[in-house]
Automatic annotation (TrEMBL):
<feature type="transmembrane region" description="Helical">
    <location>
        <begin position="167"/>
        <end position="187"/>
    </location>
</feature>
<feature type="transmembrane region" description="Helical">
    <location>
        <begin position="952"/>
        <end position="972"/>
    </location>
</feature>
<feature type="transmembrane region" description="Helical">
    <location>
        <begin position="521"/>
        <end position="539"/>
    </location>
</feature>
<dbReference type="GO" id="GO:0016887">
    <property type="term" value="F:ATP hydrolysis activity"/>
</dbReference>
<feature type="transmembrane region" description="Helical">
    <location>
        <begin position="559"/>
        <end position="579"/>
    </location>
</feature>
<feature type="transmembrane region" description="Helical">
    <location>
        <begin position="75"/>
        <end position="93"/>
    </location>
</feature>
<dbReference type="GO" id="GO:0016020">
    <property type="term" value="C:membrane"/>
</dbReference>
<dbReference type="InterPro" id="IPR017871">
    <property type="entry name" value="ABC_transporter-like_CS"/>
</dbReference>
<dbReference type="InterPro" id="IPR050173">
    <property type="entry name" value="ABC_transporter_C-like"/>
</dbReference>
<dbReference type="GO" id="GO:0015431">
    <property type="term" value="F:ABC-type glutathione S-conjugate transporter activity"/>
</dbReference>
<dbReference type="GO" id="GO:0005524">
    <property type="term" value="F:ATP binding"/>
</dbReference>
<keyword id="KW-0472">Membrane</keyword>
<dbReference type="InterPro" id="IPR003439">
    <property type="entry name" value="ABC_transporter-like_ATP-bd"/>
</dbReference>
<keyword id="KW-0813">Transport</keyword>
<feature type="domain" description="ABC transmembrane type-1">
    <location>
        <begin position="341"/>
        <end position="528"/>
    </location>
</feature>
<feature type="transmembrane region" description="Helical">
    <location>
        <begin position="35"/>
        <end position="54"/>
    </location>
</feature>
<keyword id="KW-0677">Repeat</keyword>
Length: 1526
């Protein structure tokens, strides 16, 4: 009984005979009153909870103003509700017409409630500030589409005759539905007319787009149009969508990471406390922070990795926080949204084969003369179009959601890496070089972004395989497993290849990610349909393969091929992504600087200042807070696993004091400064520093910015204060030399400034910062004596700008010591002595011995101890008088300094600094000075990619090879067409259709003949495509290697001017991203282009062969495709270029930050640098977002046209009277592929033009100007050249690059073989330029240099440079062992190396290292002090020992004693060599044969030191007098 009731209900709902065996599709009244109402209304009510949840969690935005559009939508909703009431009343009162059913009344009530609900939602949308509603649009669209059935039914059934009221009411109702759909297709306006939102650029149009505009990407039109009209520039692209901006992306990720870290720390704490509970009662506490380890925060709140500590011991637990889990929690809902779209797309994929099946059946029945209603054919054809349109929409929404999510993941992870780089400790820094950390950004973060958009393959591919297999089973039965087996058997092979390759890539990170897709290409060619059809023919009862089975199976196998092929690639992608996640996770879990290393407890003395009165005399204070630096029994190490670098440090510094820190090389001076900054691990004791800090590192850290920006360092410009700082730091004359003064851009790492200039810019930055405490690590080492005197007087001294500040000065200049308040002497990491200058000289301690060693080393006479000390004191004081007096005469004022009672200094002098507060009128001329750009913006090519760029690539492949590749692929595609046409002939054979003859030999022979030819064609395709893949892959790899070699060879020969004006990050970008494009992306793009172009061509040929009338539509469609492509490609190409050029600054800034992390922390500038990084990432993603959005714009439109091709093919199949089922199958199965083929063709054409830009960029760097030849075969100097070391300059002139002034303006002098020549002069006089010219790092602009009779301009650069040795101003070491740094080419024995170390006074130090010569120096030699690095360079020089040696301020970073030892070594080991020494310490060259004084690029004096000193008017005499040498 129940079954009968159900059957009756089903027939009442759907009557098949009424629906299908009718002149029109007639649906029952029950169907119209139920399903056609319940589906759209049910959609609205089901979505309601999700909508309300989303609205409640939406960020607050301004409500939308009332507008005509909003009022119209509200009015239509209410009117539709009213119409439902009227319709209900009409139904109740209608006595003549047909009585209404319960279902109809229920339907009216549901519609009334739904329209009323839509009115409420419209109001909520307005209040919440939402300009469009997808739910309402889809609800009204579904309602309108559901109304189409009664729309035509009422007309055909002439309802107007029986119930005019209902007829009229329905069409009014349907008209308002249509109107509401139109209204909901338009977005609301956010602002009132005449008002515009404030912002820096154009707002992203997606934020103001309607739902319909968003799903069709109509909002991209303006950008595509602009790109078509002109070459896009940066300002033409709208700003990033707020959803994707770093400010909205980073906080949720950081919050999730923080929670994960705290959760793991609690688990670790519980585990450890549980494990230790039985033994003894420990005090267990987890060192947790509210901030994540990857968050630096502002100021000194450097959080560190959570650890578990016990009393008396420190146990560091492994941080097991999962980055993957955090990403799932943070981005799971977003990716599910994308996957939902992909799920619907996958289901829709399998509708088309079913439509093809019924269409073939329809045509076959017509051909057999059976009656078939034409509307069925039209419905089937329309079904193809509608299904394909829905597929396109869901597919592109999936990609849009997925790829924008990838952007957000990249932005969040890059920021996490950047913040970690600002907070990681020294142990972590040793584990990763700058290059490796930058690689995390450039490769691993990018890989995670790329994978996110394709992650759906993981579940989508298996689902498609299962569904396709099930449908194939329904078609051909068990034969499906034969074809499927071929595919599946190759999966492990592909997977193994991918895993092996990935393992090699993990081991050798220098290799870029590449993929060999040979097996996939072979699989595509090995027509699995062949195996399936052979099995079916041999196993079926009749052996007959009809058109329906053949072409439906073919279309299903086409669907199946993609997921089967993509799975092995996905395995490789997942492994790569897993490695990247692991590398990033490992990095952001590294330990951080412990905030407890240094306390910043400001409690203590209070400051009382009269309002608006900054006179120091009006400041009262108490003494409780007079100690601004307190260190108690502190022991520090650079790494918990290393021996302490500083032990038992005890000292305190009062406010306003000047404290000098002295000691020999490696004694721990720089370590002490780092310890006060919190840069070292504190193993015991306590450190407290009160107030803000300014830091001058020993090696100046200079940003790639203007001089002014480097000095201001984020502070507001105060012109008078700024001018005072420039004058005090002696930068005025230097700025006059620079082309644009202080607006001159400094190159990367300050490359276009001398060492002294960089140090003074670094000092000026600190002075302008106006901090409470100044930590200065040997700031005067790189400047001349007279400049040093000026700086000490004007900045650090008793009358300097910082006279009221607390100053800690690390120095090797002992002549400053009488003028400091306290001297701290370090020896072997301990404070050996500490006190005032007088106190330390009052007894024969380590300090006195140090001074005596230096000052009395030439004195052979023994004297009484007190007399010796008195002699040292008098000599030092005499020197003090000379270097601190305003004139060359000795005033004696400074000698009295030590005898005064120190004046009480008020606390926190930053508020009463002498460089603040005075009024002045800024020089407007200075303010208007234009910026001189050294680093030019990266060149972005414009316009269409020139054909010659393609030719460059084809020539790299080989023109003959390129022609062979093209010809072989044409044969492959021709065989593919032939096999499908043969399949059509096979299934249409009339003899084989007569299955009653299946047992006859003629029938079987004919069947086997068809099968044999089909098999031969399939096997031929497999062989040909394998050959094609091998030739293509190998030739493209060679092409990439060739272009890479050309670029590398050219870079190695580029002149210094190129590196001065080109950031390293930009060059690295060419060698990483662009080379990777040529390695893997471009070859794939070219193969895909060939595949899609020939596939599209073959599709057109086959459809035209099947239905010639198709040619009538192919022409307009082809024109449309061409126009869309031409319209789109310029935009895509230019966006790719803009994206490429904005990527380099991210890496440049990151590298720069890593190098200056300690300075950034010291100045408390982390937030500003993080903000800069976020802005650069956002800027790059802005162009990436525009590019992927334009791709979606193109894809949707091309697929729309492709869908029309499918519709046309189906329609022509319906309209053609004599067409067979096999030809319909052939035509439509090809047409189903053309949508993706033509879309991919345009996409691949655009991508190929986009990616070939990398060839263009690599070619640009392989054609830059180069140095002279390395070796000139016919102008090589003699093998033993130079024998004497004679050097002659004849009117030599040079400049650093074209367009700049001469730096040497006519040098003429002769240096005899074996002479020792000192070169002196003010900073910027041309000293370093002279040495650079000897190596021909800059070429002559006039004149010549001759060495032992050979013009250096005539010989090859290698022949020249191999015969010269330089000990540079900045020591250069590489990450690697000490031995490798000394002997990179492994030319010397260990004994020779130990001898060089002994002569360079490093043997004792190296022998005490645990690893000896194998000791790792760290990146840039960071594990050694600057002085030790210089000594290693000296040892390297001693090994090489050429006839000519150049010393470029080589001893500036070492103490006086070590300097003398080095000078003695040089005199002894290079006694027969010609030595050119650039010196700041004149005492080191007083015994030289000659002294050359340079001034503004000219030789002003050149004679022996004695002769020059006899002339009291000489510049050298003045310098010697300043240095107290005369």
């Amino acid at each position: 009984m129940a079954d009968r009731t159900l059957l009756h209900s089903m027939r009442a709902l759907i009557n098949e005979s009424l629906l299908l065996d009718n002149s029109y599709p007639q649906f029952t009244k029950c169907f119209q009153d139920t399903l056609l109402v319940w589906v759209p209304c049910g959609f609205l009510w089901i979505c309601l909870p999700f909508y309300l949840y989303s609205a409640s969690h939406q960020r607050d935005t301004a409500p939308l103003p009332l507008s005509l559009l909003n009022i119209s939508k509200s009015f239509v909703s209410l009117l539709l509700s009213f119409l439902m009431v009227v319709d209900l009343i009409n139904g109740i009162s209608n006595e003549d017409g047909e009585k209404e059913t319960t279902a109809e009344y229920l339907g009216m009530a549901i519609k009334f409630a739904s329209f009323a609900l839509s009115f409420v939602i419209i109001q909520i949308e307005r209040v919440k500030g939402n300009i469009t509603s997808g739910i309402l649009f889809l609800f009204y669209l579904l309602s309108m589409l559901a109304g189409i059935v009664p729309f035509y039914t009422y007309i055909i059934q002439k309802v107007y005759d029986s119930d005019l009221n209902r007829f009229v009411l329905f069409y009014i109702y349907w008209g308002f539905l249509f109107l509401q759909v139109v209204l909901l297709s338009v977005a609301e306006s956010r602002g009132r007319r005449g008002y515009h939102e404030l912002g820096h650029g154009m707002q992203c149009p997606e934020t103001n787009a309607s739902f319909l505009s968003r799903i069709t990407f109509w909002w991209c039109n303006s950008l595509i149009q602009t790109g078509f009209k002109k070459d896009l520039e940066e300002d033409d692209v709208w700003e990033l969508h707020p959803r994707d901006c770093s400010d909205n992306v980073v906080p949720p990720f950081e919050e999730s990471w923080n929670n994960e870290v705290k959760q793991q720390a609690k688990s670790l704490e519980h585990s450890i406390s549980y494990n230790h509970r039985p033994h003894q009662s420990h005090n267990v506490q987890a060192t947790l922070s509210e901030k994540s380890p990857l968050l630096g925060g502002a100021g000194k709140s450097y959080t560190h990795t959570p650890e578990v500590t016990f009393k008396g011991s420190k146990v560091r637990g492994e941080n097991k926080a999962s980055l993957f889990k955090v990403m799932v929690k943070t981005y799971g809902p977003d990716i599910l949204k994308a996957w939902g779209c992909k799920f619907i797309y996958d289901l829709l994929q399998f509708v088309s084969p079913q439509l093809l099946s019924v269409l073939i059946e329809y045509v076959t029945m017509k051909q057999l003369g059976k009656e078939e209603y034409e509307w069925k054919g039209y419905v089937y054809a329309a079904g193809f179009f509608i299904v394909a349109l829905l597929q396109s929409t869901f597919f592109h929404q999936n990609f849009h959601y997925g790829m924008t999510l990838g952007m957000r993941i990249k932005s969040a992870v890059i920021t996490a890496v950047y913040k970690k780089a600002l907070t990681m400790n020294n142990e972590a820094r040793k584990s990763s070089t700058v290059g490796e950390i930058v690689n995390l950004m450039s490769v691993d973060c990018q890989r995670m972004q790329d994978l996110t958009g394709y992650l759906w393959m993981v579940w989508s591919s298996p689902m498609q395989i299962i569904l396709a297999t099930w449908l194939l089973w329904n078609q051909v039965g068990a034969a499906v497993f034969a074809g499927l087996g071929v595919m599946v058997l190759l999966i492990p092979l592909n997977a193994v290849i991918s895993i092996i390759q990935r393992r090699l890539q993990v081991k050798l990170m220098k290799f870029k990610d590449t993929r060999i897709k040979l097996m996939n290409e072979v699989l595509n060619g090995m027509k699995v349909t062949l195996v399936t059809f052979i099995t079916y023919v041999l196993t079926s009862e009749t052996g007959y393969l009809d058109a329906q089975k053949a072409f439906v199976s073919l279309s299903l196998l086409n669907i199946l091929r993609f997921p089967i092929n993509i799975l092995p690639m996905m395995i490789s992608y997942l492994i790569q992504a897993n490695v990247s996640i692991g590398r990033i996770s490992k990095f952001i879990k590294y330990g951080d600087l412990d905030p407890d290393n240094v306390q910043h407890d400001d409690r203590g003395g209070e400051l009382f200042i009269k309002y608006n009165d900054l006179d120091p005399d009006n400041v009262r204070h108490d003494d409780r807070g007079d100690k601004v630096v307190e260190v108690n029994s502190a022991t520090f190490s650079w790494d918990e696993n290393l021996q302490p670098a500083l032990q038992n440090i005890d000292f305190e510094i009062k406010r306003g004091k000047l404290v000098a820190v002295v000691g020999q090389v490696g004694s721990g001076k720089s370590s002490l400064v780092s310890a006060l900054l919190g840069e070292m691990d504190k193993l015991s004791g306590s450190v407290n520093v009160k107030g803000s800090i300014a830091y001058v590192p020993q090696q100046a850290w200079i940003q790639n910015a203007t001089v002014q920006d480097n000095i201001l360092f984020g502070k507001v410009m105060n012109q008078c204060k700024y001018d005072d700082v420039l004058e005090a730091c002696a930068l005025g004359p230097d700025l006059e030399i620079l082309s644009a003064g202080d607006m001159t851009e400094i190159g990367e790492k300050g490359i276009n400034l001398s060492g002294g200039q960089k140090q003074r810019v670094s000092l000026a930055r600190a002075v302008y910062n106006n901090a409470d405490i100044y930590l200065m690590d040997d700031p005067l080492s790189a400047v001349d004596s007279h400049v040093g005197k000026h700086i000490f007087q004007k900045v650090m001294g008793e009358k300097g700008l910082l006279k009221n500040k607390t100053r800690i000065l690390v120095t090797h200049g002992i002549h400053w010591l009488p003028m400091v308040d306290m001297v701290v002497v370090l020896q072997d990491g301990k404070i050996s002595e500490m006190g005032t200058y007088d106190e330390l000289l009052s007894h024969d301690g380590a300090f006195a011995q140090f001074l005596k060693t230096y000052l009395t080393q030439d004195n052979d006479e023994e004297q009484e101890e007190d007399e010796e000390i008195e002699q040292i004191r008098s000599k030092i004081l005499e020197r003090v008088e000379s270097v601190t007096s305003d004139t060359a005469a000795t005033s004696g004022d400074e000698a009295k300094i030590r005898k005064r009672t120190p004046k009480k200094k008020p606390p926190l002098e930053r508020t009463i600094s002498t460089i603040d507060g005075r009024e002045c009128k800024p020089d407007k001329a200075k303010q208007k000075q234009e910026k001189d750009v050294l680093i030019q913006a990266e060149k972005a090519e414009k316009g269409k990619v020139a054909w010659k760029v393609f030719m460059i690539y084809f020539k790299a492949i080989g023109l003959a090879t390129s022609a062979i590749i093209l010809f072989v692929y044409m044969i492959y595609q021709a065989l593919g067409m032939a096999s499908n046409i043969w399949l059509s002939e096979w299934t249409d054979d009339k003899d084989l259709k007569n299955i009653s003859n299946a047992d006859t030999s003629d029938y079987q022979n004919k069947n086997y003949m068809y099968l044999g030819v089909y098999a031969a064609l399939g096997l031929s395709m497999g062989i040909i495509v394998m050959v094609w893949s091998l030739v293509c892959t190998l030739s493209q790899v060679r092409a990439s290697a060739s272009l890479h070699y050309d670029m590398l060879a050219n870079m190695m020969k580029s002149p210094m001017s190129f590196f001065d004006t080109t950031p390293i990050g930009r060059i690295v970008n060419r060698f990483s991203r662009d080379v990777e494009t040529l390695d893997s992306i471009l070859p794939t793009a070219i193969r895909m282009w060939m595949n899609t172009s020939f596939a599209a061509l073959s599709t057109v040929i086959v459809i035209s062969y099947s239905t010639p009338i198709f040619l009538s539509v192919i022409v307009p469609i082809a024109i449309f495709y061409y126009l869309v492509q031409r319209y789109y490609v310029p935009t895509s190409r230019q966006l790719q270029r803009l994206e490429s050029t904005t990527r380099s600054p991210i890496y440049n800034h990151f590298s720069e930050t890593l190098m200056g992390a300690s300075s950034i922390r010291a100045y408390n500038q982390q937030d500003r640098f993080i903000r800069e990084s976020l802005d650069r990432v956002d800027k790059n993603l802005k162009y990436y977002f525009a590019r992927i959005s334009s791709n979606r714009w193109l894809g949707w439109r091309l697929e729309l046209a492709g869908n029309l091709v499918v519709f046309a093919a189906a329609m022509f199949a319906v309209l053609s009277p004599d067409i067979s089922g096999s030809l319909v199958g052939l035509s439509v199965s090809y047409a189903l592929q053309i949508t993706s083929a033509l879309n991919m063709l345009v996409r691949q054409t655009a991508d190929m033009e986009t990616y070939v830009v990398s060839v263009e960029r690599m070619k640009e760097y392989s054609e830059t100007e180069t140095e002279a030849e390395w070796v000139r075969s016919f102008k090589r100097p003699p093998h033993d050249w130079p024998q004497r070391g004679y050097v002659s300059f004849h009117d030599y002139k040079t400049r650093y690059r074209e367009g700049l002034d001469l730096v040497l303006r006519g040098i003429t002098c002769e240096i005899q073989g074996g002479e020792k020549v000192g070169i002196v002069g003010r900073t910027g006089a041309g000293k370093s330029s002279l040495t650079v010219a000897l190596f021909r790092l800059i070429e002559a602009a006039g004149g010549e240099i001759i060495i032992d009779g050979q013009r250096i301009a005539d010989m090859g650069l290698h022949d020249l440079r191999n015969k010269l040795t330089i000990l540079p101003q900045d020591p250069v070491l590489f990450a690697g062992s000490l031995r490798m740094n000394m002997d990179p080419f492994d030319l010397y024995t260990d004994q020779q190396i130990w001898e060089a170390l002994e002569h360079s006074h490093l043997k004792k130090f190296v022998s005490e290292l645990p690893d000896g010569l194998s000791h790792e120096c760290g990146e840039g030699g960071q594990n050694l002090s600057v002085g030790q690095r210089q000594l290693v360079c000296l040892a390297r020089t001693l090994l090489r020992k050429t006839k000519i040696l150049i010393l470029d301020e080589a001893t500036a970073a070492v103490d006086m004693e070590t300097d003398d030892l080095i000078q003695n070594t040089i005199r002894r080991e290079f006694k027969d060599c010609t030595i050119l020494t650039i010196a700041h310490r004149l005492n080191t060259i007083m015994d030289y044969d000659k002294v050359m004084v340079l001034d503004q690029g000219l030789v002003s004096e050149y004679d022996s030191p004695n002769n020059l000193l006899k002339n009291k008017n000489s510049a050298f005499f003045s310098m010697a007098k300043d240095a107290n040498l005369v």
